[in-house]
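User: Here's a chain of 234 residues. Predict its fold as tokens.
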Amino acid sequence: MSDKPAVVLVHGFWGGAAHWAKVIVELARKGYTSLHAVEMPLTSLAEDAERTRKMVAQLKGPVLLVGHSYGGAVITEAGDQSNVVGLVYIAAFAPDAGESPGGITQHHLPVAAPNLEPDSDGYLWLKADKFHESFCQDLTADEALVMAVTQKAPLATTFSDTITAPAWEKKPSWYQISSEDRMIAPENQQKMSARLNARKVITLAASHASLASKPAEVAAFIDEAATQTAINGQ
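Assistant: Prediction complete.
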């Protein structure tokens, strides 16, 4: 198993590390023994990137960073560490220098944009009764209910935090587009993936929650990226 890199999974907005549950099981079945899912505060890009850097710094050997949704912005900011051998984007933001998730979102507003609402403390929530149709329409009602009730809201200001130096300019990358995504418009995903010079781009007929609705396909894609980094001697 020593030829497999450590995999660090980075969640997005409106969820935590447990959103990776099914992918973790699939990767473990493929022989990955160094699996880690960072739990971020979702308070600012700088703080979330620092939390991710600290986890990566604790790991020996090569690390593959995998980001879902806003987690893509985090791995873009935090992926410059020397032991990071690749970046995998799962229906994720992949901003360029000076770009923010909020700015990219404005290019093509997602279908579910009206279903977001701030609270009096500045946190931005996805309306619980709209969670299923917005975030994970291809999951069961029970799965969506749990996601809605356990959602982790970000500070709304995090949307406008910008990337300093994108790690994808120096690190090999892979991108999975969700064609039925209602949280990040597929048009925005297509544009971001096209400029990455990615080793591979795939499209899944999935909601924003492809990591939960298509875990076998997502895990296979991560495995393919990991295998490629090993072949390249990273």
